[in-house]
Amino acid sequence: MNLYEHTIVARQDMSSSQIKQITEKYSKIVEKNDGSIVKTESWGLINLSYIIKKNKKGNYIHLKFKGNGKIVNELEKSERIDKNLLKFLTVKVKKFDLETNYFEQKESIEKKN
Predict the structure, then answer these.
(1) Residue 109 falls within a domain, yes or no?
(2) Reported confidence tier of residue 98, pLDDT bands at 50, 70, 90
(3) How many CB atoms lie within 10 A of CB 40?
(4) How many distinct structural domains can be found in the chain?
(5) 69: domain CATH number?
(6) What is the pLDDT of residues 4-28, one digit of tens each?
(7) I need a labelling partner for 70 at 20 to 30 A (CA). Which of 1, 42, 79, 92 fits?
(8) pTM higher than 0.90 for the full model?
(9) How far is CA 73 from CA 35, 48, 64, in A?
(10) For residue 74, what is the enclosing H or E element?
(11) Under DSSP, is residue 16 helix (H, G, I), strand (E, B) or coil?
């Protein structure tokens, strides 16, 4: 089994329940194709570097999963059709970094110190 990190950028005007539905939809695609989700992260609303389809911000969803190349093909085929998504990216990795949360709020980091 290969290890993948998959990031989805959804439209900025989506509600939290719609973001949850998108996360569940693509998690089910992974599981349907004999893959397994290791970790799911919702990074929230982040400014985009440039305007994409009239959006200045995007809701980021990050999935870490184990599976084969067939899963990536199925995910991306489904994502190309989805009008709620702006961009997506899949990267094959050698190992997962499950400890570091790169998009943790700064306030909570300061409280830990």
Answers:
(1) no
(2) confident
(3) 15
(4) 1
(5) 3.30.70.60
(6) 999 999 999 998 899 999 999 999 9
(7) 42
(8) no
(9) 13, 25, 16
(10) helix 69-81
(11) helix
Interacting residues of 37 by C-beta distance below 8 A, sequence separation 6+: 27, 30, 31, 63, 64, 65
Q: Which residues pair with 52 in a beta bridge?
A: 55
Distance CA 25, CA 104 (A): 24
Range of the domain at 12: 2-93
Positive or negative, the CA dihedral 42, 89, 109, 99 is positive
Residues with Cβ within 8 Å of 98's Cβ and at least 6 positions away in sequence, in order, are 38, 39, 64
Q: Are 25 and 8 in contact (CB under 8 A)?
A: no
